[in-house]
Amino acid sequence: MDPIFLVEAAINGILLGGVLAVLALGLNLIFGVLDIVWIAYVDLVMLAMYAFYFMVQGHGWSVWVAGPATLVVGALLGIAVHLLIISPILTSAPINQLLATGGLLFFLQSFATFLWTTDHRSVRLSLPSVEIGGIFLPFTRVIPFAISILAMLALYLFLRHTYIGTAIRAVSQDRDAMALMGANPQRVYVVTSAVGGAMAGLAATLLSFQYSVHPFFGGQFGPLTFMICVLGGLGNMVGAFVASFVMSEIIAIGGVMFSTEMGYVIAFVVFIVVMFARPGGILARRE
Amino acid sequence: MNGRTHYIEAPRGRLAGLVIGYAGRRADEVLRRVTEFFLAFPQGRRVFGNMTVLENLRLGAYLRRDATEVARTLDMVYQAFPRLKERETQRSGSLSGGEQQMLAIGRALMSRPKLILLDEPSMGLAPVMVFRLFDLIRRVRAEGYTILVVEQNVRQVLKLVDRAYLLEVGRIRMEGRAELLSEQDFVRKAYMGL
Question: Among A50, A197, A265, B137, which is 20 to 30 Å from B171 by CA?
Answer without folding.
Answer: B137
